[in-house]
Amino acid sequence: MEKATRFTLRVKITVVIFLVLFFLPIYTGLTDNGFYLDLVNRLMILAIAAASLNLILGHGGMISFGHAAYLGIGAYCVGIPAYYGVDNGPLQIFLAVAASGIFALITGAICLRTKGVYFIMITMAFTQMVFFGFVSVEEYGGDDGLVIDTRSNFGSFINIQDNINLYYFILISLIICLFLIHKITKSRFGLVIEGSRSNEQRMRSIGFDTYRYRLICYVIAGCICGYAGALLGNFTNFISPEMMDWAASGELIFMVILGGTGSLLGPVFGAAAFVILEEWLSSLTLYWHFIFGALLIMVVLFARGGISGIVTYLGNRKQ
Amino acid sequence: MTPILKISSLCKQFGGITATNNIDLNINEGEIHAVIGPNGAGKTTLISQLSGDLKADKGAILFQGDLITNMPSNKRSLLGIARTFQITSLMLDMSTLDNVALAVQAHSGHSYRFWQDARQDNQLIEPALYVLKQVGLLGPKDIITRELSHGEHRQLEIAMALATQPKLLLLDEPMAGMGGEETQKLIAILKRLKTGKTMILIEHDMNAVFSLADRITVMVYGEIIATGSPKEIRANQKVKAAYLGDEELQTC
Amino acid sequence: MDWVLFVTQILNGLQLGVLLFLLASGLTLIFGIMDFVNLAHGSLYMIGAYFCGTFTDITDSFFYGIILAIPATAVVGVIVEIIIIRRLYSQDHLDHVLATFGLILCFDALVHFAWGPEGMAIPLPAILDGQIEILPDIVFPTFRLLIITTGLTLAIILYLVITRTRSGMLIRAGASNRTMIGALGIDIKTLFTLVFGAGAAMAGLAGMMISPITEASIGMGNDIIIVAFVVIIIGGIGSVKGAFIAAILVRFIDTMGRSFLDTFLKLLLSAESAETAAPALSAMLIYILMATILIFRPQGLFPPRGR
Fold first, then answer.
1. How far apart are CA B93 and CA A201, in angstroms?
2. Is the pTM higher than 0.90?
């Protein structure tokens, strides 16, 4: 019974959220207010990135402090071809996903041989490597970044030069990515990932080569985040190494924790809370980072379980 | 009878301490072979070397004629060696059924499936439920493992090992910390399982050892001092002197 | 090859290396003893630099500036340990990372508030602001030589403290086997606080010594902290000796890469592609070094024993 109530509350919230997201452009169109559309675009892209991080962090217990690398790699895979006049959308998306996957495969193969603190620091270091790599390539703007003149071209399928179309493209991407992640976590593969987080030694002793499963999971998460990066490049029309600064990786973890690691929609709540807080606090004071940091410490000390945990709590209480 | 497992000159040292020293032992197919000895005799180390959780410093292990000395634990499991842990080692934040289903899945050979819902997958659920029924854990199948009692944890340990359909079952003190009634239940379960399985059983409960074992090996300070039938072990002077302290033997 | 440049760059690498060691040694001890991931260690490096700037302003002397700033930074470290860090030891690494990431944001904002967004230049006294001819034809800035000497001296003192004194023994025992400290019946709380404060002071000192060269700025600790992580990973968590060797190695390779990699690549590639590839490759060199070492030694060069 308890489970059923929580389920319905969750489903209700999900439906309401996606209905709002679906009709938002009509509202902003009527009120001629592009600001909210931009805000929500950013929110949705970050939600995809956070959801992909949650796949390894929440489900797999792999604390990656370098996930923003894939946002950057994905964005540069749109920007660099565009710089050479190649605006073929499917090709750019393919590049973004493939490059992220390869980077995840190589770095993951090394990171996953280590544990605990080592893993955190090495993921961080590899991301910093990519960061400095792009900073020092003058051809693509160095640390000034690179302006993307033209968005990805999907031919007659959809024209994302139009902001409303881009919005729906991102929204559909979010829904597909969430569904994909949902399916993976519930599958046999997902069960192995969860088991490996819970007790790796026992998983090996019942016959799983946990290293391989975790590596594949790491690569999948990288690919999805690379896709989010390609969307980000299209949305901002600009890329800079700063997108994969290690603070950006920290922010992604914050979103996942803020939203709660245990659920599908957690990262979406987390990204939403993050983007809204950021907008609100930065309008209040120049020193908003302080409030942000203090909040982060508070969450760690007092409120693990995040927003999603609060929803669960409310669902249970209602019952 | 043919030995299913041949151990020769197996050694393991931790720093300056010798945990197992030149162990030579053959385990026959279909027997329950108990390994007894005082604490620190190296029994758990031996099990861990057989399961692959610990690397051997020296020596060789042959399982069904294959050399497995340097094989990682997951591969040994796929060959048919399963173990339980003395200190319960489970996926504590997953349900009882999930724990067993994972063990089934490990040996079904299809874990690169990303789409179908594993918890609706009858190829996993049915064998898992069957094993849970065997050890009498059907009741709490949907409970998160962390919340089970100690006795249930011990039963689940065995269920997970069984779910991998092992040929050789390594039981590291399965009765540890159990009450008398629970122990009797577990002895009955193990007796029922005896057909078709070889077991190595480490146990301090002499009642359990003498009612289950076909043969017994006694270890002291990392070395084997005697191997034989329960009757032979009972009569063995060396064993009496070194370990059993006569009164325990006489009560069985 | 230009030998003057080569020797100068070796000395530069050494100077940056000892500074990096000051940061990394505290970090590795905190990791080793408390199993605590402190991302905010770089913030103490920054705080040290700003304190030094302010005290130098007030006292009109760089020396007094440093002498006052070291205990001040240590006090900040101790306060942070008592108020926040202490509550986190029992929690998992994810919590450490998140909370200390939060601390970084707080520190950066506080420095922004107190000192403004601009960097802070710290003037050197005339006596240090010159150059010395250390070998025929090779001149090197006096202040950088002082950094090398100070850094090496501190490394030796640290080594002696850790290998020769009772508290050092405890620290060493703790860094390789944490349960040991409890077993020895030591007041763990105080030991942790002291080690944290000492780590803060060393990180702060590194910040103080670099700031006359680069000036103190917000976020100056955030870049170097990752390099310090690379050092600890290469050296082996908990090993001060490993941290020293790795810090020198990392800065040495970094400096050499930046100065000579393009020359070297021109032997293999066309001049044009060498000029494009060299900066990117040299920026990534230390991370490639880290990856290579990890492939062969997943626990670093001097792995802690007994864990």
1. 15
2. no
Strand partners for B82: B169
Reported ipTM: the value is: 0.85
B83: left (phi over 0), alpha (psi -120 to 50) or beta: beta
What pairs with residue B141 in β-bridges? none
Task: Give the contacts of A67 (CB within 8 A, at least 6 positions apart).
Answer: A49, A52, A53, A123, A127, A221, A225, A249, A252, A253
Please return the burial class of C227, using the count of CB atoms within 10 Å of its CB with bins 0-12, 13-18 and 19+: buried
**Residue in A closest to B125 by C-alpha:** A188
Chains with at least 3 CB pairs less than 8 angstroms from chain C = A
Domain ranges of chain A: 2-318
Residues of A within 8 A of B172 (CB-CB) are none
* Residue B68 CB contacts under 8 Å (≥ 6 apart), including other chains: B52, B61, B62, B75, B76, B79, B81
Each residue's pLDDT, cut to its tens digit, for chain A (319 residues) gives: 344 455 677 788 888 888 888 888 888 777 777 788 889 999 999 999 999 999 999 999 999 999 999 999 999 999 999 999 888 889 999 999 999 999 999 999 999 988 878 898 899 989 999 998 898 888 888 888 899 888 888 888 888 888 889 999 999 999 999 999 999 999 999 999 999 999 998 999 888 999 999 999 999 999 999 999 999 999 999 999 988 888 899 999 999 988 888 788 889 999 999 999 999 998 988 888 899 899 888 888 876 655 666 566 666 654 4
Class of domain A2-318: mainly alpha
Rg from Cα positions in chain B:
18
Q: Minimal Cα–Cα distance from C221 to chain A, Å?
A: 12
